[in-house]
Amino acid sequence: MSGNLQSWVGRTRRVADEMATPLVRRMAALTDRAGLDLARGAEVPNHWLCLLFDDAAPQAALGPDGHPTTGDFLPPVPLPRRMLGGRRLTYTTPPRIGDALDRETMIAAITPKVGRSGALIFVTLRHSITRGNEVIAVEEQDIAYLEAKRNAPEPKGEKPAPAPIAAWRDAFAPDPVMLFRYSALQFNGHRIHYDADYARDGEGYPALVVNGGVTTLFLLEAALRRQPGAQVLSTASRTMNPLFCGRSATLCGTAPDAQGRSILWAEDDTGAMALRIEARIG
């Protein structure tokens, strides 16, 4: 199985996008950033690049989960469920409102593994985001494909790993409106984030799954509120357990060291770590 998939390693795709004012205005509303400068040419928070480069697949090319079907650019992995396992991002120059940007994506690796939920395959994508001839960000994503989960019990989190000493802790209560608005901003059709019936009956989750991008966004926003005027310079994140809509969660962070490095994490309602980010902010 993996041998046939290896022929997809090295494939590339290029997508153009624009850091348009309406997108920035809507993200500012989602994150409660009242008074953000929306003038053309104004700098945008680095981590808001997540707004851009959606798949925008035709409706006829979507699978039953709302994701684009594989076999076009992404390899035809024969496993039905998908989630983001981890990502690593480095920013060099802030994007600006009105910027015309390009992202070239390469399939960097395809790695089969066996985990708690059975067989899984990781597809690693490497993105390079440019403004003209200038590279402004580089990202690697690990997409995990998993076996079907039918009538499965609620996922059991691992025992909470020893967490760092938190310098701050914020309550986090993602609701369906927040999840919908974020998915709408990204043109993300993955049904587990807005279709509760599908999340329960189709994939065996107890409730809507909080998009890892939502948790990442609000963790970084929480850290930046404590460092006014700073930008996210790099992140390395790992998804460990899902967060579910309607359940309490907590955003946590350490104090930055001399190089601006912090550990940020989200805890679920049991205290288990759901997402961990090594961030450099300055």
Explain what you see.
With 282 residues, this protein is α+β, with helices and mostly antiparallel strands. 16% of the residues lie in helices and 34% in strands. The chain contains five helices and ten strands. It has a ten-stranded antiparallel beta sheet with strand order 1-3-4-5-2-7-10-9-8-6, with helices on one face. Helix 2 (21-30) runs antiparallel to helix 3. The protein is globular, with a radius of gyration of 19 Å. The relative contact order is 0.16.
Keywords:
10 strands, globular, 34% strand, alpha+beta, ten-stranded antiparallel beta sheet, 282 residues
Q: Work out the number of β strands.
A: 10
Mean pLDDT: 92
Query: Spatial order of the strands in the main sheet?
Result: 1-3-4-5-2-7-10-9-8-6
**Helical percent range?**
10-25%
Quick one: overall form? Answer: globular
Which stretches of 5+ consecutive residues score pLDDT under 50? 150-158
Count of DSSP helices?
Answer: 5
Summary?
This protein is of the alpha+beta class.
Give the SSE layout:
Layout: H1 2-5, E1 12-18, H2 21-30, E2 81-91, E3 100-115, E4 118-131, E5 134-146, E6 168-172, H3 176-186, H4 196-201, H5 212-225, E7 232-239, E8 249-253, E9 261-267, E10 273-281
Antiparallel strand pairs: 1-3, 2-5, 2-7, 3-4, 4-5, 6-8, 7-10, 8-9, 9-10
Helix pairs in contact: 2-3
